[in-house]
């Protein structure tokens, strides 16, 4: 794709979808856009833009594609088991009798905050915690708030007991039960431009920053540290790493886990 075409797409996407592609890795995004145009069957971006002006459904699909909503319950089971068996007991002990403040940033259609809700219910059945799930994508948040729908691949990490306890009967597609939805506060939020709540014990931000430039990534790690309480934990994706965590006021406490110093 020519650079001037990419510049135009960036402007249209920013104006119509509120997404600033400046923060996303250039080459990767250009490749994705090229393949989207081929898949759409249109011969030029001009034709495609004319189409999304009148076809709101297509506009939403385009937005979903750009924001990449891929997710599943217990994505990277090993890391989630570490969270459940090592990290949560530690931060629960530090919290004493008060409930935890936990945030899934870039939560897509909710599998991640729902996983957090299940784990915390299993670990502390009688305690109340604040669990926040946010995403830039309005459609994804609306789906999360209605409890799904999830496809079979997205729930494969759940045990038979968890399926029985937390999913409504029937499916596919699968929906989580109302009592689990009620445990989560869902909100639309752009993590790049919006302000963050503070004093979190745990922030989970996985498989989101991989799409961002290194400057944007660094800016976000600083913002996340600012939103953690001292001793709070940042849980990042399996393919991500923070090479110099001390630059952000963090220290490594296991693969994918960083603690605010
Ligand atoms: C690949 S999904 C990851 C979902 C989940 N964290 C997981 O690992 O399963 C990436 C999500 O990040 C969201 N996202 C992308 N840019 C964002 C931004 N600037 N602010 C908030 N969410 C964003 C997308 O809408 C998408 O739902």
Keywords summarizing the entry:
single chain; Rossmann fold; two-stranded antiparallel sheet; 10 helices; 45% helix; binds S-adenosylmethionine
Distance from first to last alpha carbon:
44 Å
State the CATH superfamily name of the largest domain: Vaccinia Virus protein VP39
The level of helicity is 40-55%
Shape: globular
Beta strand count: 9
Q: Approximately what portion of the residues adopt beta-strand conformation?
A: 15-25%
Number of domains: 2
Low-pLDDT residue spans = none
Give the names of the bound compounds: S-adenosylmethionine
**Sheet having the most strands:** 7 strands, mixed
Order of helices and strands: HHHHHEHEHEHEHEEHEEE
Word description of this protein:
By secondary structure, the chain is α/β, with parallel strands linked by helices. It folds into two domains: 3-66, no CATH class; 77-260, Rossmann fold, CATH 3.40.50. Helices cover 45% and strands 16% of the residues. It is built from ten helices and nine strands. It has a seven-stranded mixed sheet with strand order 5-2-1-6-7-9-8. Strand 8 and strand 9 form a beta hairpin. Helix 3 (45-54) packs across helix 4. The longest helix has 19 residues, at 77-95. It is globular and about 60 Å long. The mean pLDDT is 94. The structure holds S-adenosylmethionine (SAM).
In short:
45% of the residues lie in helices and 16% in strands. The chain has ten helices and nine strands. It has a seven-stranded mixed β-sheet with strand order 5-2-1-6-7-9-8. A two-stranded antiparallel sheet has the order 3-4.
């Amino acid at each position: 794709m020519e650079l001037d075409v990419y510049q135009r797409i960036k402007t249209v996407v920013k104006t119509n979808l509120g997404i600033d592609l400046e923060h996303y890795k250039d080459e990767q995004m250009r490749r994705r856009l090229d393949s989207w145009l081929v898949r759409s069957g249109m011969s030029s971006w001009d034709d495609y833009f004319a189409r999304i002006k009148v076809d709101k459904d297509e506009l939403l699909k385009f937005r979903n594609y750009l924001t990449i909503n891929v997710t599943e319950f217990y994505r990277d089971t090993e890391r989630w088991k570490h969270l459940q068996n090592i990290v949560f007991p530690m931060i629960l002990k530090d919290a004493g009798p008060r409930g935890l403040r936990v945030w899934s940033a870039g939560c897509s259609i909710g599998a991640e905050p729902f996983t957090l809700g299940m784990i915390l219910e299993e670990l502390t059945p009688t305690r109340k915690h604040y669990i926040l799930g946010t995403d830039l994508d309005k459609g994804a948040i609306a789906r999360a708030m209605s409890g799904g729908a999830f496809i079979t691949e997205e729930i494969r990490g759940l045990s038979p007991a968890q399926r029985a306890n937390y999913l409504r009967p029937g499916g596919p597609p699968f929906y989580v039960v109302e009592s689990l939805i009620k445990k989560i506060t869902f909100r639309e939020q752009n993590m790049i431009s919006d302000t963050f709540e503070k004093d979190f014990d745990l922030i989970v931000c996985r498989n989101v920053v991989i799409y961002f430039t290194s400057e944007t990534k660094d800016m976000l790690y600083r913002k996340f540290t600012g939103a953690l309480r001292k001793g709070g934990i940042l849980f990042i994706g399996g393919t991500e790493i923070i090479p110099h965590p001390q630059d952000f006021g963090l220290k490594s406490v296991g693969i994918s886990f960083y603690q605010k110093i």
